[in-house]
Amino acid sequence: MALLLTLQNISKSYGLQAVLRGVDAVIAPGWRVGVIGRNGAGKSTLARIIAGTETADGGQINRDPSLRLAHLEQHAEFQADETALEYLMRVSGRPEWECAKMADRFGFRKTAAAEGADAPLDSMFTAAARLSGGRATRLRLAAALLGEPNLLVLDEPTNFLDLPTQLFLEAYLRASYRGALFVVSHDREFLNRNCDRTWEIEHGQATAFNGTVDSFLAEKSGRRELVENRNLNLDRKRRQLEIFVNRFRAKASKATQAQSKIKQIARLDQEMEDLPTALPTARIAFQPLAALRRGEALHTYKLNVGYGDRVVARNINISLPRGSRTAILGENGAGKSTFLKTAIGELPPLAGSFRWPSTATLGYLPQLAEAEKSGETVVERLRRLAAPRTTLQQIFRAAGNFLFREGDWDKPVSVLSGGERSRLQLAVLTLGSYEILALDEPTTHLDAETSDALATALKEFAGTVVFVSHDRSFIRTVATELLVARSGTLGRYGGSYDEYLGELATDAGLKDVQLSDSPTADKPAKPDTRADRRRLRQLDDRLAELRREHGAILKHFTENPTDPDPAPRKRLKEIEELTEQTEEEWLRLAEKLG
């Protein structure tokens, strides 16, 4: 099987910090690789090295001559005043008609009475710099696909995307794009739906796994638990042998036995398996409330929100109960953040009214980090924004809880990464005593582990939470109420979150996606691949079944580490051989289907 890309012993450092240490991996045609790891682990660095926009310090990259690679970065620079169509032409080098056709497929209309700053935001003649995060990502993806790549490298593609655009992207990747994928993301739902292979970047190394992210994490957890229990049993035996040796070594009658025990100890030491140090996770806990009050938390009456004379959402009439956790949903630009900023007093209402309980204390997490104060350090930021009478010891504890070690305390906030700044903002919230938390896109720069920790902390928080988010897993875990911004207003949604997603997929997201070009007379008929695709699905199901059985046996060993029955071990070996055979057939079919 021809490989598109081979990485051999790739290393990369920034100053004294080694990010990648001897990474070895391959990408074959049709592979869909999801890349996970903590913030700062080197995921984006590896993506840039693969894409050729950054150079490795050591190692070798072999690219097949057939490789056509496109790279969708987290950020892209638009030139001043260039339109969306001009951006596509500049980046791709393709003619205007071809760029216009691709722009239309991605939801940019061709008709417009004006250009640049005066054009509608869904026009291909609008200024690219005016686009929201979601539409800018659509535009960058269109530019990437104009080159007809067979390897698409996506770095955090769902950051800043609203749900309709996320569904749009998924539909395109699953139904229209047939090449290989390399996706760096903290969005596990996106990875599980679009990637069937997983790479984890940890301690500078890449671990490859043939399966989804959830399957990998389950197997990793089971494997670690199995090794830990086995090591504990070996250590227990070792200590017993050491007691015998220490007690009888000096006795001539026991000397031979003591020497035998020493050899046993040496063998046990060899059997002990080293485990990598588990990475720390932020410890998030909000201040407990003295008492849980009942009644309304937020009430609005004929509320209009917006900026200046521009009304974004009007006639908002809602009532949220105390103790609820409300997710505000909707497309970018529909008024979600504007409503939240108005409700907390950051923006004045354009009409109508809103009220919180008169004695309620409110904590706010903005979408964008506070403007930098010259030279302000981590601890100085915490001291300035912490609640009155917060002690220095409490500040140091909060810094540590959010993974800022003593060496980070004097680090200027201006040099922190996006993930570090988000953790710092959350640390500030935990230093105050709030009855209401208002959070605007709290998970955008967080890794999956910190997002999970935040979701758990919010579920345990007895107060009221109102938050804007597009993170599907986070919303499912946290939300008890839903507000939806659409059609120029904002109101409660009566169904479940999955029902809302279903509506989007049916009514908005998927209708905008041209899943495939319409067949024309001048196109040759495509070969019938239905049988091969059906067999590929059967192999996928078989691999999933084998992984489940493999995990069940590992769990059995974890719970019964001394089980003498040879049958489970024999079956484990059979499963591993069957998995290898099934994967080989899967690869042959995947390569055949392209």
From TrEMBL:
Record keyword Nucleotide-binding present: yes
InterPro entries, alphabetized: AAA+_ATPase (IPR003593), ABC_tran_Xtn (IPR032781), ABC_transporter-like_ATP-bd (IPR003439), ABC_transporter-like_CS (IPR017871), ABCF_ATPase (IPR051309), P-loop_NTPase (IPR027417)
Listed CDD domains: ABCF_EF-3
Keywords: ATP-binding, Nucleotide-binding
ABC transporter domain boundaries: 5-228, 298-512
Transmembrane segments: none
Region annotation (Disordered) ranges: 512-531
Pfam families recorded: ABC_tran, ABC_tran_Xtn
PANTHER family: ABC TRANSPORTER ATP-BINDING SUBUNIT, DRUG RESISTANCE ABC TRANSPORTER,ATP-BINDING PROTEIN
Protein name, UniProt field: ABC transporter domain-containing protein
